[in-house]
Amino acid sequence: MARAKQQALEAVVLNWTQPEHIDPQARCDPDGVTRTIFWTQDFEIRQYPGYVVFLEDQNHTSRVIPLDGRPHIPDQIKLWMADSRGHWEGTTLVVDVTNDNAKHRLSNEGDFSSDKVHIVEKYIFTGPNSFRLEQRYEDPSVYTRPWTLASEFTRAHANQPGYELWFNECQEGERDVEHLYHGDKTKPY
Questions:
Q1: What pLDDT is recorded for position 160?
Q2: CA separation (Å) from 186 to 19, 20, 122, 137, 175?
Q3: Handedness of CA 17, 78, 146, 45 (dihedral sign)
Q4: Would you kindly state where each structural domain of the chain is located, as residue ranges?
């Protein structure tokens, strides 16, 4: 069933025929844990007593990750940015992610996971301006086996001490998607 859904999304990624084919990002919905960190232009990682906070420029998205060992929220509660719980292992931040609402996509092509996905993230800080991110996915209802997405990140504005994160706004009621869907900007949605 998951394979059929993936193939259907890939077939219409550039030629939408139904509203559900439209990428949720184009509707200003949050991108979810994976796409936010890999898609966003700029982000900041801040540490406060008992928390790590990720601030992204896309739609003012943020993740507050408690480090105090508290349990995850109840299974029946599903969130756009899921529920994250973290701890430090030396210079590696390990984040356990559950309770994803699965309304977003993992990529522009339509890759997805279900609301049963379990992600373990490792932010391996390799220097003052760099880290390696590894995200391990387990979701037996979509994937035949666990898989890992990994990438290296380098601070883009390390030599700009006054750099300020600017937020990329997407507004509720955005009409461009509807015009693209209809293919005719003169027709109301």
A1: 79
A2: 18, 22, 48, 43, 12
A3: positive
A4: 30-172
pLDDT < 50 stretches in the chain: 180-189
Cβ–Cβ < 8 Å for 55, 44? yes
**Six-digit token string for 186:** 């003169």
Long-range contacts of 115-118 (CB under 8 A, 24+ apart): 115/78, 116/140, 116/141, 117/142
| Residue-level pLDDT at 155 | 84
What is the distance between the alpha carbons of residues 180 and 189, in angstroms, rounded to a whole number? 10
CATH number of 30-172: 2.40.128
| Cα(23)–Cα(30) distance, integer angstroms | 11
Q: Which of 103, 98, 100, 82 is nearest to 28 (CA)?
A: 103
Residues near 68 by Cβ (< 8 Å), separated by ≥ 6? 50
Closest C-alpha to 36, from 59, 65, 10, 6: 59
Residue 56 pLDDT: 81
3-state SS, residue 33: helix
Residue written as token pair 């966003």: 40
Say what the pLDDT of residue 184 is. Answer: 46
